[in-house]
Design a protein that fits this description.
Residues 18-162 form the DDH domain. InterPro entries: DDH_dom, DHH_sf, DHHA1_dom, Oligoribo/pAp-PDE_c-di-AMP_PDE. The chain folds into two domains: 3-197, Alpha-Beta Complex (inorganic pyrophosphatase (n-terminal core)), CATH 3.90.1640.10; 204-331, Diaminopimelate Epimerase, Chain A, domain 1 (Roll), CATH 3.10.310.30. The longest helix is centred in the last third of the chain and has 20 residues, at 312-331. 38% of the residues lie in helices and 19% in strands. The chain contains eleven helices and twelve strands. The strands form two sheets. It has a six-stranded parallel sheet with strand order 3-2-1-4-5-6, with helices on one face. A six-stranded mixed sheet has the order 7-8-9-10-12-11, with helices on both faces.
């Protein structure tokens, strides 16, 4: 029995399905959850819910949810604890309770579908393919193999997610992404794809990117910068993407304070540097971090800097110093930098 059939068989055993997105879900996670819900409906599950925690702050993510009318509900831990028989719990685009999600460690999972590096995944059904560029690729494969109805909304969601996750097939794309895109293309809504690809940008996001540009420091081909304090968490990956286009730069790491945490976003096409491993090694003792060799992220609770939180300027200075020292040491860089 192949993966699609095994997944479908588990779904036919359930009366309800709860799909938990990772914190601050992106289009790949949202589209995968949306598609899994459609597959569950085809398997006879009438009660389905998609839960998320954190924020949907990136303008593309907000447009994605609004234009596709994806029904999301805020995460509540009671929903996943002490579930009755027949209640299935699924993760898409992440895989471990407590890692980039608010699900308590030790919670029993029924379904995990993911493409991010991870170890120790435990669920009744696991499809974990690190070699793929997007989780949505896996779900598109299931929709096709199970002959689930593919309307324009579902096709558009999956196609946009694959394009966004792979930066229009320039990052991590495999033959599977191209095959999935070919299958989805004729069913997708071209006008809706255009709207999703060109959402408006908030002034706060632009300000955060401008701050990262001003604060940039480089050593060799590595650029490290920060956005200070911002409410726009998704400005960090946008700043990292922009700074990665700077001539002579191969690796970019951007950090900033969002709420009560320090967030990171990293980009690196340099084959000599695995930024997921860099962030994990630098910060796993104080937070959670990791990802792919060319794209990674992380989060550190501000609790470790609690004594400085009464003075924002002092806090920013201390955070910048500590983070930069850790990154410089892990990357083996000289302390001499240039703007």
């Amino acid at each position: 029995m192949d993966d699609a059939d095994s997944l479908y068989e588990i779904l036919t055993e359930g009366d309800e399905l709860t799909i938990v997105c990772h914190n601050n879900p992106d289009p790949d996670c949202l589209a995968s959850a949306f598609a899994l819900g459609r597959i569950a409906a085809a398997a006879g599950i009438d009660e389905r819910r998609i839960l998320y925690s954190g924020d949907i702050s990136h303008q593309q993510n907000r447009a994605f949810v609004n234009l596709l009318e994806i029904d999301l509900q805020p995460f509540e831990v009671e929903t996943v604890q002490d579930r009755p028989a027949g209640s299935l719990l699924a993760f898409v685009d992440h895989s471990i309770p407590g890692a980039n999600n608010r699900v308590p460690e030790g919670i029993r999972l029924d379904i995990v579908i993911d493409h991010h590096p991870a170890e120790g995944i435990d669920a009744r059904f696991v499809d974990h393919r690190e070699e793929l560029g997007a989780a949505a690729t896996i779900l598109a494969e299931y929709v096709r193999e199970l002959d689930v109805e593919l309307d324009s909304v579902l096709a558009t969601a999956l196609l946009f997610a694959i394009r966004r996750e792979t930066l229009n097939f320039l990052r991590g794309a495999t033959r599977a992404e191209y095959d999935a895109a070919g299958y989805l293309h004729d069913h997708a809504d071209r006008e809706l794809l255009r709207k999703l690809s060109t959402p408006s940008v908030t002034g706060k996001t632009l300000d955060a990117i401008a701050t990262a540009i001003r604060n940039r420091e480089t050593s060799s081909s590595v650029l490290i910068s920060h956005v200070g304090r911002t409410t726009e968490r998704d400005a960090l990956p946008q700043a990292a993407d922009y700074l990665a286009t700077l001539e002579g730069v191969e690796t970019v790491i951007v950090f900033g304070i969002v709420g009560d945490s320090i967030h990171f976003s990293a980009r690196s096409p340099d084959p000599r540097i695995h930024v997921g491993n860099v962030l994990k090694a630098a910060f796993e003792d104080v937070g959670s971090a990791g990802g792919h060799h060319d794209m990674a992220g992380g989060e550190i609770p501000l609790g470790i800097f609690a004594e400085y939180t009464t003075d924002d300027e002092q806090l920013l200075g201390i955070v910048e110093q500590v983070i930069t020292v850790r990154l410089t040491a892990e990357l083996g860089l000289s302390e001499d930098t240039e703007e």
